[in-house]
């Protein structure tokens, strides 16, 4: 556990302000509590609705269900654990919970980003080829479920470094005084490991998915623009209805 700290001496020595004297100690946990309540209720209701209503079972809602599950996971685990960073001077949960917290954060981010990427691809194919019903011999919904499961597997695999290397370490803040922090970067691997991990996450969780999503939606917009411009007047009512349905899938 952390050493008992004297507020006056620490401020005089190095400017460190104990949490008991910080305004965010009381404000931030309250905000996190609101996020916890709203997040659990909102995502829980969405999952119940999508799972119970047979009329909502389509490929897009498979991905939305996966997104809600990922959000619920991080809300139930990381939000309460992270709130203590603004409440206590030291990490109070120990090594195992430290690893779990960092691992779950990466899983949730991975599931959210990769699912949004898959959802953009699904919407692209729904607009460009609305009569598509089978891919590689599989029906659309089973294929979407398989992709969602593979996304979870990929997110879990990419979170393994956090699960393996996260640890609780002591940080000296004054003479004979220290605090515990949950650190996802092992000290023995040096600054290069930290830099490489941050760069990898920036590319894998942000840049590459953003480019793919932007590419799909650009193609969707381009297809809709061209189809409107080139739409023949003699289209049948059924063909017009099919085009309207395909466009609604991108909303």
Alpha carbon gyration radius: 24 Å
The chain-level structural class is: mainly alpha
Number of strands: 4
Q: Beta-sheet strand percentage?
A: 5-15%
What is the residue-averaged pLDDT?
80
Give helix and strand order, one letter per element, not per position. Answer: HHHHEEHHEEHH
Query: Order of strands across the biggest sheet?
Result: 1-2
* Proportion of helical residues: 55-70%
Shape: elongated
SS summary, helix count: 8
Distance between the termini: 52 Å
Main sheet overview:
2 strands, antiparallel
Report the uncertain regions. 1-12, 133-137
General description of the model:
With 251 residues, this protein is mainly alpha-helical. 69% of the residues lie in helices and 8% in strands. It is built from 8 helices and 4 strands, in the order ααααββααββαα. Strands 1-2 form a two-stranded antiparallel ribbon. It has a two-stranded antiparallel sheet with strand order 3-4. Strand 3 and strand 4 form a beta hairpin. The longest helix is centred in the last third of the chain and has 40 residues. The radius of gyration is 24 Å and the shape is elongated. The N terminus is likely disordered.
